Each structure stands twice: as structure tokens, then as C-alpha cells.
Amino acid sequence: MRRVRRRDFLLGLSAGAIWWPHGARAQPSDRVRRIGALMNLTEDDQESPGRAAAFRAGLEEYGWVEGRNVHIDYRWSGGDAALINKHAAELIGLAPDAVLASSGPIVAALQRNSRTVPIVFTAVIDPVGSKRIESLARPGGNATGFASFPYSISGKWMEFLMEIAPGVRRVLVLRDPSVTAGLDQLGAIEPVAAKVGVEVSTVDVRLEKEIEAAITEFARTPNGGLIVPQSTNATVRRQLIVDLAARHRLPAAYGNRYFVTSGGLISYGPVIVELYRQAAGYVDRILKGANPADLAVQMPSKYEVSVNLRTARALGLNVPRILIARADELID
After folding, report:
1. Where are the alpha helices (DSSP H) in the chain?
2. Is 329 in a helix, a strand, or coil?
3. Which class for 119: exposed (0-12), middle (13-18), buried (19 or more C-beta within 10 A)?
4. Confidence bin at 28 (pLDDT 50/70/90)
5. Is there a shared CATH topology between the 14-149+271-301 domain and the 151-269+305-331 domain?
6. Computed from CA positions of residues 234, 237, 239, 240, in that sequence, does the dihedral angle turn out positive or negative?
7. Rounded to an integer, what distance in angstroms lies between the CA atom of residue 225 and that of residue 215?
8. What is the pLDDT of residue 1?
9. Residue 135 and residue 129: Cα distance in Å, rounded?
10. How far apart are CA 94 and CA 136, in angstroms?
């Protein structure tokens, strides 16, 4: 499978090029600091190494080098609630100087164990509505970080789905009932669907058997499509969802590119690994004395469009040239 990023092609750069920091900034204290990292994926997930590497590279940019002046304790949960609670208690028990948290449920578990240990989160959906923080500008408490996207982005999934599959007349939105932002995301999708005459239905699913039953039942009626918003539940089960969409010939739009690299049709969402690099900057400030309550929660600065041309062909779809030109990544 070949992956082509349009901007890399235009610049004539190697698709395998990687970025290395050109030099660390002013060196921190020689005292070894301890950072906990509670991740929402499994350690063997293909996305996990890139996220951990981006976080370490960000720390190195600020002079924090693992094994020299900082130690990182990783825990991997795979979205399992019992593991999240277990690992949260373990990490807080290690008395870290800060903890990296990679989902809303992880932030909640950490806060149940401590309201004083600083937490820097990445890709959390609706941190205010889920009561993880008081406000984006002034988080209060012990948590801050980088949210996934404003709710308006959710309407883009409907727009891109109709652009690549204009024959869709019915859309099923797969929601994780534990994600409090579900109604707000749906509220952004429905007006876009109404403008183009698409009927929207939703289903709350968490277990694999529920996902399979919902998609199979929906696919019994023709002209259907899927929208899969961002959630840990969907991420850890992305191959199942992608395979079901292919089996039932359902065009699908996703909130993250790794669905497309797994065989999904199209995605629009933030550059997740960049959020981990940015999180390192907040950890640096906290290690140097900043209070997380005073660090504003930030939204992503970049969103990317990914299209799987092979999947489009398998579905009998002709990808518009204008969409190909807009895509950040084409997979063939």
C-alpha cells in the first residue's frame, strides 16, 4: 500500500522524511523528574510508537532527555475501563511531577486519584462539558492540555462523505455513549445532512458485537453510509469497523486518518501525533513551575484530509479531482 502526502509530492520531499530537533533549548535542572503517561491504546497498536516518539521528541526540544534528566513511566490501557482505573492508581502512587493523559476517561480516572498532580491531556473531546476543566481559557484544577476539535468540525465529516459518495441518502453515526460530546457532534452533522437531503440515524455502541449488529442491520437498506466520530472505543476497534464497512459496501467518513490507513474511505481530523509533541511543551512549563490551572486548553492548529483511493475504487466511487487536490494524504 502506497501513501502519498500531496504537500510532500509538491515539494519533492521523501515520504519517509522525519523531523529531528536541531538543538535543545536551555537545559533544565539536573534533578531527574518523573512523568507518568497513561495511553488509551495498547502498546502494540501501530499508532502507539509514533505518539510516544512525538512526546519524547517534544520533551527533548525543551532539554528533557529520557534516561538523563527525566524518567517516563508508561501504562497502556487499550480503552479498557478496569485497566484505566488500575493504571491511574499506579501512576499517581509513583508521585510523578506530571502525567500525560490521552483521553477523557483517563483524565477522569487520574483526577479520582489526585486533584493535585498536574495532568496534561491530548485529544480530549469536550473537556468542559465532561467537567474535566472549568473553562478553556482558565482550566482551574490540575488538568489542562489539547482538545480534539470544536464541534463545528463534525459537520465536515458529512460534507466530505457527500463529496466522495454523492449517492448516499442515509447515514448511520456510530457513537460511544461514554463520550459526552456525542449530542453536540450530532448537532453539527444534522444541519449539513438536512441541506443535502440525507437522513441521519444514530446508534450507541461499545462492544464489538453491538457494532457488528448495528452496521449489519443498517446495511439491509440501500444507499447508506457511515460517520464514525472520534472516540477511544472506535479507535481500538477501527479494523472491525473498516472491515464491516467494506463487507457491506458502505462509504464511511472518519474523524482520524488511521481509519483510512486501515482501509477506510475518507477522514478529516487533527494531526494526533502533533498534539503529543505540543503536550510536551506544557509538561515542560509545569516542570519549570507553571500551574496547569493557568494554562489555557488549546485546539489543534492543523486538520488533515486523508483519502483511500483503493477503497474508493472497490466501492465504485470516482474521487473528484478537486478532492484529490485538497487531500493531505492519498493512499493507493
Report:
1. 6-11, 48-61, 81-93, 104-113, 154-164, 182-195, 208-218, 232-236, 238-247, 257-261, 272-287, 309-314, 321-326
2. strand
3. buried
4. low
5. yes
6. negative
7. 10
8. 52
9. 9
10. 29
| Burial classification of residue 132, based on how many CB atoms lie within 10 Å of its CB (0-12 exposed, 13-18 middle, 19 or more buried) | buried
Domain ranges of the chain: 14-149+271-301, 151-269+305-331
- d(Cα 170, Cα 155) in Å, to the nearest integer? 15
Residue 137, all three cell numbers: 481559557
The three cell numbers of residue 6 are 500531496
Q: The sheet that has 33-39: what strands, in order across it?
A: 70-76, 33-39, 98-101, 119-124, 143-147
pLDDT single digits (tens) 120-169: 999 888 788 777 788 888 998 999 999 987 778 889 999 999 999 999 99
148 and 124 in contact (C-beta within 8 Å)? Answer: yes
Tell me if the domain spanning 14-149+271-301 has CATH number 3.20.20.80.
no
pLDDT tens readout for residues 192-239: 999 999 999 999 888 999 999 999 999 999 999 999 998 889 999 999
* Residue (of 199, 131, 132) closest to 171 by Cα position: 199
In the block, cell 478553556 appears at 136
Q: Superfamily assignment of 151-269+305-331 in CATH?
A: Response regulator (3.40.50.2300)
Query: pTM, whole model, 2 decimals?
Result: 0.85
Query: Binning pLDDT at 50, 70 and 90, where does residue 305 land?
Result: very high
Angle between helix 272-287 and helix 48-61 axes, rounded to 10 deg: 40
Local structure of 56: helix, strand or coil? helix
Cα separation, 298 vs 145, whole angstroms:
7
